[in-house]
């Protein structure tokens, strides 16, 4: 079977090596996030913005580090989210030149809906695994993420 004929994107011509398996899994997760966003007219980067802001308010520089975006791209991204009523900018109490971005109540609801939908879809990927294998997968993934966590002030990569 070829990649073109298999809707999963996986060839069945032998075992996947670790890199191939992780890359193809990341593509699958990206499609899930993209599909969840499309249902709400959100891009993947917009979903990531809402996800980051679910548990914090953040400055534009911090958000840019999390998302890997420069200042002008962040300004546009936050501006579009603000026009949709998903976020608001408020002056930073710590720096008169900076603003903090927070979710509005509507943005918080939408972020929760997207997180729930993504959680259901990703959960469905592992539902058929025995509980011990799911736990092993969770621990391995968490271990990889912990090993790659940037140091203080370097920002985090988040969905």
Model description:
The structure is a single chain. The chain has 159 residues and is mainly alpha-helical. It has a domain at 18-124: Arc Repressor Mutant, subunit A (Orthogonal Bundle), CATH 1.10.10.10. 57% of the residues lie in helices and 8% in strands. It contains six helices and three strands. It has helices spanning 18-38, 44-53, 60-67, 71-83, 105-126, 131-147; strands at 58-59, 87-91, 99-103. Helix 2 crosses helix 5. The model is unreliable at 1-5 and 153-159 (pLDDT under 50).
Concise structural overview:
This protein is 57% helix and 8% strand. With 159 residues, it is mainly alpha-helical.
What's the helix and strand layout?
Elements: H1 18-38, H2 44-53, E1 58-59, H3 60-67, H4 71-83, E2 87-91, E3 99-103, H5 105-126, H6 131-147
Antiparallel strand pairs: 1-3, 2-3
Helix pairs in contact: 1-5, 2-5, 3-4
């Amino acid at each position: 079977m070829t990649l073109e004929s298999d809707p999963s994107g996986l060839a069945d011509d032998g075992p996947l090596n670790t890199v191939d398996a992780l890359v193809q899994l990341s593509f699958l997760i990206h499609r899930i996030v993209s599909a969840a966003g499309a249902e709400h007219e959100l891009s993947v980067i917009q979903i990531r913005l809402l996800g980051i802001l679910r548990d914090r308010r953040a400055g534009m520089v911090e958000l840019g580090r999390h998302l890997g975006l420069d200042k002008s791209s962040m300004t546009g991204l936050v501006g579009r989210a603000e026009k949709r009523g998903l976020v608001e900018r408020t002056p930073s109490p710590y720096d008169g030149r900076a603003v903090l971005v927070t979710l509005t109540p509507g943005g918080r609801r939408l972020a929760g809906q997207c997180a729930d939908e993504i959680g259901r879809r990703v959960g469905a990927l592992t539902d058929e695994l025995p509980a011990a294998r799911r736990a092993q997968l969770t621990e391995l993934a968490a271990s990889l993420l912990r090993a790659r966590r940037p140091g203080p002030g370097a920002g985090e990569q988040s969905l």
